[in-house]
């Protein structure tokens, strides 16, 4: 069967042959057994409902074996035979070009070069899934191939509920992931309900089809590293950044370190993903011995090299060894998936990778104990370095949160509202006040033609637009503009593309709208093919996350999620092609609500209207909330936005004199 025929077939009437387990692929770890015998039967009933009864007797023992062996029913047999990658948009069998664009993005998320655990449909973060099983994938792709521009596909946590009548200006797809009743949003609830097949963890851009490989976070990481060095008044040249994690999103760190110009040491325990990053050129060297690592770093310091080094081992050992060797760490962080600490997001020191995976599945209580012991030891090692002047920040991966729950010494001696920990979130000190408050966030696009030359043209268009805007930009955002122009000029030479022909840069509402309009004009003239716009949920107004995106909100509202919900609702009726709202992305199940969108530019006047309406709202919703929290940069930004748009009228805060409150 051709690729198009397989898409249109959906769930096949004749079952394909079972697929052998491929040990060369990076697989998800076995999930712990959490279902009762009756719940196991329910999980099997839930899985079999995708198939005609004639197949149940064949599939039942197979699905039972998967549940027992892996803790989930992935339906490996249904994995397609064709290669998984983002094809040019015209190669998809679709009645709607908007639907074809979504098919392209789904396949990009599952591309072997992009996805962390492709056979388990997990894109990044250890559990960030596009779908829970291969039946959901097949059925979704069939629906997208069949849909017209007056239908909307409804996605319930990976499950395609179906096509419903709507209208041409409505989103083509509406996605929810993990939207639990609040009292059922603890980590073990995810394990249970995901094993039952009724919900999933969509991470941020996995279950919303907008992941573009590690490039998606490289720019923000580069900005973070650059501004981290600015905070400590040091040039990156010859200075050290120590962190951990090379899977998925965290794989961006060494590339960002190279772009910033520092010495990056990034520890990773998984040999497969370490080798992948080396082969992809995202790290320069791999070292497996701590003494060799020390010697190599000392040489790099002496020569003031720009280099990224992966240490295949546990980061706790790196912190301890560098203390012993008296190597000064200038910047320190961690980007292991601590939103998922008990199921492969964080590996405890003192255990091999293989032994940790075995314990995780078969002795989860002991594994949890080992993780918490490791977090306490990890924090102790970091504290020794910070006492010597290291600037350490939480990278939004729930490191401080989980370390605090483990009883580690990371709490502030003088806590204030929003500053409970010794160390700041990077959003509190860097991204929040410098970027999000002013409306700058991760604007991204994908060239639907799949042509590298189209990406090069869009890079040039974006650069020209930014340079023109910068001529009249206020002083408050000149640094942000300069950093972005420098980034986009170096984007091609830094070889950031993994998977789709995609790009990211940090832009405010003005920049996003003007770049998007320029793209739409170029499409109308036939200079480039369709462009798919999107962003990370990690943005100005997409996410309510008290320990990350909204950690620099100090009016008490950082634990609310009104902003993220309004963001998605507002995007949906202002022209988004698809919208998504998730629980859990980035920092953990029950710890965050985040929303995203995708928008297809086709060169039409309608696309021009949609992009202006939606992108303006998508950014200024968040700025207005940050302004109401009395963030000075946001007050400046929303006042400026009201001056340019007469239909925008936002409630501004009145400040209270500190002296007045002191006297009550």
UniProtKB/TrEMBL annotation:
Transmembrane segments: none annotated. Its EC number is 4.2.1.49. It is an enzyme of class 4 (lyase). Binds 1 NAD(+) per subunit. Pfam families: Urocanase, Urocanase_C, Urocanase_N. It catalyses: 4-imidazolone-5-propanoate = trans-urocanate + H2O. This is Urocanate hydratase. The lineage of its organism: Bacteria, Pseudomonadati, Bacteroidota, Flavobacteriia, Flavobacteriales. The gene is hutU.
């Amino acid at each position: 069967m051709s690729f198009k025929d397989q898409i249109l077939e959906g769930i096949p009437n004749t079952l394909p042959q079972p697929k052998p387990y491929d040990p060369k692929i990076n697989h998800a770890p076995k999930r712990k057994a959490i279902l009762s015998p009756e719940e196991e039967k329910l999980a099997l009933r839930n899985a079999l409902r995708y198939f005609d009864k004639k197949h149940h007797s064949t599939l039942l023992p197979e699905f039972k074996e998967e549940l027992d062996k892996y803790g989930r029913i992935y339906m490996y047999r249904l994995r397609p035979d064709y290669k998984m990658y983002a094809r040019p948009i015209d190669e998809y069998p679709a009645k709607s070009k908007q639907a074809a664009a979504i098919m392209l993005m789904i396949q990009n998320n599952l591309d072997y070069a992009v996805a962390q655990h492709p056979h388990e449909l997990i894109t990044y973060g250890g559990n960030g899934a596009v779908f829970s099983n291969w039946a959901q994938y097949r059925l979704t792709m069939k629906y997208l191939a069949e849909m017209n521009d007056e239908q909307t596909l409804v996605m319930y946590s990976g499950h395609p509920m179906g096509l419903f009548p709507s209208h041409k200006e409505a989103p083509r797809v509406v996605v929810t992931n993990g939207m639990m009743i609040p009292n059922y949003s603890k980590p073990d609830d995810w394990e249970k309900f995901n094993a039952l097949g009724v919900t999933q963890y969509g991470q941020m851009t996995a279950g919303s089809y907008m992941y573009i490989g590690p490039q998606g976070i490289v720019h923000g990481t580069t900005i973070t590293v650059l501004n981290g060095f600015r905070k400590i008044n040091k040039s990156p040249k010859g200075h050290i950044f120590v962190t951990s994690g090379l899977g998925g999103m965290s794989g961006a760190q060494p590339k960002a370190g190279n772009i910033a110009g520092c010495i990056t040491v990034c520890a990773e325990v998984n040999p497969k993903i370490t080798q992948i990053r080396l082969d992809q050129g995202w790290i320069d060297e791999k070292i497996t011995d701590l003494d060799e690592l020390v010697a190599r770093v000392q040489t790099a310091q002496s020569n003031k090299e720009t280099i990224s080094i992966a240490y295949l081992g546990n980061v706790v050992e790196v912190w301890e060894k560098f203390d012993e060797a008296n190597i000064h760490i200038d910047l320190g962080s961690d980007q292991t998936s601590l939103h998922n600490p008990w199921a492969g997001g964080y590996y405890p020191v003192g255990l091999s990778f293989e032994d940790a995976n075995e314990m995780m599945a078969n002795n989860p209580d002991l594994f949890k104990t080992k993780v918490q012991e490791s977090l306490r030891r990890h924090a102790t090692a970091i504290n020794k370095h910070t006492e010597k002047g290291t600037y350490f920040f939480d990278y939004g991966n729930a490191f401080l949160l989980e370390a605090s729950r483990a009883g580690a010494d990371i709490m502030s001696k003088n806590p204030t509202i929003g500053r409970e920990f010794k160390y700041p979130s990077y959003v509190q000190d860097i991204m929040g006040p410098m970027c999000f408050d002013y409306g700058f966030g991760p604007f991204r696009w994908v060239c639907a033609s799949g042509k590298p030359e189209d990406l090069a043209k869009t890079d040039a268009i974006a650069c020209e637009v930014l340079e023109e805007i910068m001529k009249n930009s206020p002083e408050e955002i000149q640094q942000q503009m300069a950093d972005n122009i420098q980034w986009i000029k170096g984007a091609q030479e830094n070889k950031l593309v993994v998977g789709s022909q995609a790009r990211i840069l940090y832009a405010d509402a003005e920049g996003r709208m003007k770049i998007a309009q320029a793209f739409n004009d170029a499409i109308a003239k036939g200079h480039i093919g369709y462009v798919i716009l999107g962003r990370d949920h990690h943005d100005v107004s997409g996410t309510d996350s008290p320990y990350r995106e909204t950690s620099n909100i100090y009016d008490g509202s950082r634990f609310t999620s009104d902003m993220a919900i309004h963001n998605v609702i507002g995007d949906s009726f202002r022209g988004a092609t698809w919208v998504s709202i998730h629980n859990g992305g980035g920092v953990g199940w029950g710890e965050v609500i985040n929303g995203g969108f995708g928008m297809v530019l086709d060169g039409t006047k309608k696309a021009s209207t949609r992009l202006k309406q939606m992108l303006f709202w998508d950014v200024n919703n968040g700025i207005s909330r940050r302004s109401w929290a009395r963030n000075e940069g946001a007050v400046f930004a929303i006042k400026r936005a009201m001056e340019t748009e007469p239909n925008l009228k936002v409630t501004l805060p009145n400040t209270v004199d500190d002296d007045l409150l002191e006297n009550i």
